[in-house]
Amino acid sequence: MTFFMFDVDGVLTDEHARPSEEVLHSIEKLYKQNEKLAFITGRSRKWLAENIFSSLNKDQDWSSLYCVAEHGAIKGKGPDIHKWQLDDDFVIQDKVKDKLQKISEKPDYNGLIEWDETKESMGTVEAVHGDPGDGEHLKKTRQALKAFAEEAKEIADKFDKKVVVSTYGVDVIPPDLSKKVGAQWILDQTSGSEKTVYVFGDSKGDIIMAETARSYGAEEVTFFWVGAGDPPEPKDDGITIKSSTENFAAGTQRVLEDLA
After folding, report:
1. Is the separation of the CB atoms in 165 and 153 below 8 Å?
2. What per-residue confidence (pLDDT) applies to 15?
3. 167 and which of 10, 22, 126, 232 could share a cystine (Cβ 3.0–4.6 Å)?
């Protein structure tokens, strides 16, 4: 049995953050085969419910699906997000969120980024997606995210927080919060007994999920890179890195087809 850990943004979605029905169908097949599955994402639980769980087969029992939202601040099993637990230790102060939100409302960012009201633990802006194929808008949103991240860092440093840049957004979070927190919680639930772990990611920080699996004793850990550019370098030589020939959900689907 293999444990599949999936980041969500840019892994189960396309470049416009739209979930891939093809990938989700492949995940349903894995689940029916009794493979263990986990979603570990920086997105909110509300976003997951509206964009991912709403597209999964509702006749299937998903109670064994491990779910981590907001990097690890929110954790639970199954698609009933109301049963998931928010860890108050990872919630940043409202005054920090207010300062960040004011920055996001600057005219220079209008139509390019927007404040994410669904986040419960952190301060986040998300890209405003344009029409499919609008490369110019995509370029501008990425520039806006980079600019916001630089401004947000001044506030983050002042309040002892850190800035995390992802494919579609920028998060300001506590310094000790990362997907390692989420991966540890999941592996604790399974007693760290998984020997084969496949991790799918599209950002440099996603490699921490693979490294955490190794630290729990997983013998065969493969990190599948579906992001742009070169994959991250793992700190553990026992992790195999494989890059897909495509990015985003299309790359994930290609990998899953090869594994079938």
Report:
1. no
2. 86
3. 10
DSSP 8-class letter at 91: P
Token output for 65: 């699906």
pLDDT value of residue 251: 98
pLDDT of residue 167: 85
- C-alpha 148/C-alpha 104 separation (Å) is 7
Angle at the Cα of 101 from the Cα atoms of 140 and 160, rounded to 5 degrees: 105
Identify the residue whose tokens are 């007994």: 193
pLDDT computed for residue 241 by the predictor: 98
Task: Provide the pLDDT for residue 192.
Answer: 63
Distance CA 7, CA 13 (A): 10
Residue 244's CB is within 10 A of a number of other CB atoms, namely 21
Tokens of 101: 């939100």
| C-alpha count within 13 angstroms, C-beta hemisphere, residue 223 | 29
Structure tokens at 98: 């207010």
Q: How far is residue 45's CA from residue 2's CA, in Å, rounded to a whole number?
A: 25
Whole-number pLDDT of residue 67: 98
Model-wide pTM > 0.90: yes
Contact residues for 218 (Cβ-Cβ < 8 A; gap 6+): 3, 192, 194, 195, 196, 197
Q: Which residues of the chain have pLDDT under 50?
A: none
Residue with tokens 């300062």: 99
d(CA 69, CA 9): 12
Which among 148, 165, 137 has a CA at the least distance from the CA of 106?
Answer: 148
DSSP 11: T
Q: How far apart are CA 22 and CA 28, in angstroms?
A: 10
Give CA separation, 92 vs 83, 95, 102, 166, in Å: 22, 9, 16, 19
